Predict the structure.
Amino acid sequence: MNDFDVIIVGGGHAGVEASLVVSRMGLTAGLVTMERSKLALMSCNPAIGGIGKSHLVKEVDALGGIMGLAIDATGIQFRKLNLSRGPAVWSTRVQADRRAYNDYIVSAIEQDKNITVIEGIATEITVEHSSVKAITLKTGDRIRCKAVVITTGTFLGGLIHIGEQQIRAGRLGEDSATELSQSFLSLGFEVGRLKTGTPPRLNADTIDFSVCEVQPGETPIPFFSDRSPKRVIEQENCYLTYTTEKTKEIVSRNFKLSPMFSGQIHSTGPRYCPSIEDKFYRFADKKRHQIFLEPEGNNNNEIYPNGFSTALPESVQLDAIRTIIGLEHVEITRPGYAVEYDFCPAFQIKPSFETKRVKHLFLAGQINGTSGYEEAAAQGLMAGINAVLSIIGEEPFVLDRSEAYIGVMIDDLTTRSTTEPYRMFTSRAEYRLFLREDNARDRLNKYASKYKLLDEATCANFDAQRIEMDRIVKNLHSTRVRIDQLGNLAQRFKRMETTTLANVICQPSLTLLDAIQLVESIAPEFSGRSELMERAAIYVRYEGYIDKQEREVQKFRNLEKAKIPASFDFNSMVGLKMEAREKFTHFRPSTIGQAGRIEGITPGDIAVLSIYVKRFKEMPT
């Protein structure tokens, strides 16, 4: 008899989302974690969102996930980024109360009757007839189940580096899971090594904030989730400061003491979040680097110096950081460090996050070669959904590149070799004008309803909002106003007596916010629905571009409909160069479109593949 329907190994952001969605879909979940009090603990920066990442959070929220609710409830500073650019790249970022966020998640898990938290370390995956059946703990206890989701983060083979010092741990002061890597190897999986890092934490009382640039939050507060109760808070300030020539001199002089430069670390770190050593080495001509001083909570005296990730010896860290403006007398409360960990390159999973080698075994988060809380949460949510669907015998739920940033991420992972930790950016999405923060609900609510990820009333409410937004768009096109009502803007409409409100919104001389305020001032019937009005205005202003992108999306979807049978033998194709056959066999794309996105594959390769797939499908069974 099974102990649980689904076992989730790892209690980080991926494991939490996986556990909760399994419960919401009506099955039982066993969550294996080292310490139940540290669920979704922010190991690195105390913030959620940012460029590209916030889109993932919005999508997780649209599919019933908890991350948006948790950060809305525990955020201490809320900001909108990229507002000087188009709405496709507008992004939300929220500074968290690190401990409060952790407590919020722990409470949600503990109150869920379908979830049982099991403190322990998983050491072995039991497989029978190519299907997962159980996991074994370090204590020797075996827990049977119908599916397993592995979300081990940096704990799988975790090794911390501080100068020459090495500590077996996935997070400073905690344990490392070493035996599970061997279980993956014994099952035939390829296992690699990646690296990430974190800055030292600083005592706020020893910082001179008066010489730093203040970065306040925004009002009204840009909450992540439509489901969050609105609240008014006194937001905390963040601060911007800079390194100096003396910082560069100290760090450069001690390159040899950094494990990244001494040869102690051989694995690859995240390109877009380099250590301070990397910054001074790779950008030797740059005179200074930004350092953002971010509070870790309302009742927490620690400061996170974002931009100063390091694995130098602690004494060197202190000498270097005291050369930064405002930090001349700072005290370090915890040293920065680098951490190496094991991962399974993601060509070994399907777009559903189920492994190709073992049925009902799913991988999510950093084990797939990604970095970041948001990327992990999105993967955990999707892996949890598909674990349930695999148990009840339904087709997997897979989002494609045209539907969501989640779809972009999984397609990137499964069609490209992961040689460095993967991070989401808006630039990765070719249909980003279609995949905005503001329309995540419009895109994904149908799936939340289909899979019962949100209750019927909530889904119905979001559908009603979408219908109302469409009505506002229609009225903006049909409502005409006199030119003399437009003030200074009137000169743009010479020889005209009236124009539509849609035409007013589209004027490039106005910011979107100014355009909305003008429309509301001359047509009060459009006021009082700020969020819906903003969504409608975005659509009106970019309607032509959105229509063009929708046509491109349709072409993409036509290619995605061209399925490649799971039993297709790529090595049987004559006339295809060896490199293409090897890559097709390695990644095993499921559609012609996906095959075309594999690095190094040419249009000629796709033409040959299309012919062979068509012949294969026409062969008698």
